[in-house]
Amino acid sequence: MIYTCTLNPSVDFIIEMDSFEIGKLNRTKNVMKYPGGKGINVSRVLKRLGVDNVALGFIGGLTGDFITHELEKEQIAYDFVNITGETRINLKLKSDQETEINSQGPSISTEQQARLLEKMQNLRENDYLILAGNIPSSLPANFYHSILKRLMEKKVKIIVDTSGTALKELISCQPFLIKPNHHELGDLFHTTLTSLDDIITYGKQLVSMGIENVIVSMAEKGALFFNKQMTLFANAPKGDVKSSVGAGDSMIAGFLAIYAKEKNVEKAFQYSVAAGSATAFSPNLCTRSQVEQLVQKIQITHL
Ligand SMILES: Nc1ncnc2c1ncn2[C@@H]1O[C@H](COP(=O)(O)OP(=O)(O)OP(=O)(O)O)[C@@H](O)[C@H]1O
Ligand SMILES: O=P(O)(O)OC[C@@]1(O)O[C@H](CO)[C@@H](O)[C@@H]1O
Questions:
Q1: DSSP strand E in 122-281: where?
Q2: Measuring CA to CA, which of 33, 200, 214, 294 is 20 to 30 A from 21?
């Protein structure tokens, strides 16, 4: 089974405006709200790609009810820990540019933390667990690390999509897959990566440090894939970007949707880039038919 974990889910409130001026009265053209948070996005895209999965994490209040209701409509299984606080609302402003305002989120008690860790004890060998998003400030900074340590010996395949210190300390636990973007890859090594050659050097370094598979996304410049056997480059198709929110999450879902069934990393990587771009070209997350239309446009080059 595939599990996603979202420590700090959100209701993503999307506001479209013809123009947006700070300090002025702005009127909306369109507003939409979606269940969000990185793991929840992965769950939603996986389901659209025909892959059953279970969403884990913390949820609370009326905003939490909205999320579970939407997941039920999409027939996505979940097993959240209920918290007393209210799940956050994140604002995504779309005019000529995209502006995001992500809230801090509710605090989570030690008892609630323990309940999530307990649920994770049910995971078994060859299950996949996606840990996606930043760790909220009310949780210990090493919360992901504690999860990985518990699940490593059970041979659960762990996918991590986070950044900064949380990502750095997980490298030694040798996750199955990580997906930094090229800025996050540079941050890991305290540098700024400007050329493809630099990105390749540091991507390969992560594999030599024990990470099985690494995808480095580079927005409209495409993506790179690294493992012990191969280094691949994929172009990103051209299109009209509607919202890049969830593009990275869709890449993870796209990769796993193929890998979990076929164990073919090259095909999984191609599908991953198609899913990322299909989401960038959609107002919210991609659909299966959008991904399948784009996948033929993604060329994979062995480097
Ligand atoms: N402008 C774009 N044109 C085409 N594809 C894009 C564009 N922006 C993003 N993508 C697709 O989405 C993938 C992920 O994008 P990006 O590198 O921005 O990831 P990210 O920083 O994790 O994204 P996010 O945090 O917005 O989810 C890219 O590899 C590409 O396939
Ligand atoms: O505040 P975090 O946890 O870093 O990011 C949360 C978030 O921006 O990430 C998702 C897109 O990847 C959105 O659905 C959500 O609002």
A1: 128-132, 157-161, 177-178, 213-217, 223-226, 231-234
A2: 33
Count other Cβ atoms within 10 Å, centred on residue 302: 8
Using pLDDT thresholds of 50, 70 and 90, give the confidence band for residue 81: very high
- Domain with residue 92: its CATH number is 3.40.1190.20
DSSP 3-state percent helix, strand, coil across the chain (nearest 5): 40, 25, 40
- The question of whether 52 is a catalytic residue gets the answer no
Model pLDDT for residues 53-67, shown as the tens digit of each residue: 999 999 999 999 999
Would you give the DSSP letter of residue 132?
Answer: E
Burial-class residue 208 by CB neighbours within 10 Å (0-12, 13-18, 19+).
Answer: exposed
Pick from 94, 100, 181, 279 the residue to mutate for probing ligand 1's pocket: most ligand atoms within 8 Å of its CB: 181
CA angle 241, 93, 65 (to 5 degrees): 105
Q: How confident is the model at residue 164 (pLDDT cuts 50, 70, 90)?
A: confident
Does 220 sit in the ligand 1 pocket, CB within 6 Å? yes
ipTM (interface predicted TM): 0.97
The count of structural domains within the chain is 1
Whole domain around residue 54: which residue ranges?
2-302
Nearest-CA residue for ligand 1 atom 2 is: 220
Strand order in the sheet with 10-16: 30-36, 10-16, 88-94, 98-101
CA distance 48 to 196: 32
- Measured from the Cα of 133, ligand 2's closest atom is 3
Is this model's pTM higher than 0.90 or not? yes
- Note whether 301 and 287 are within 8 A (CB): no
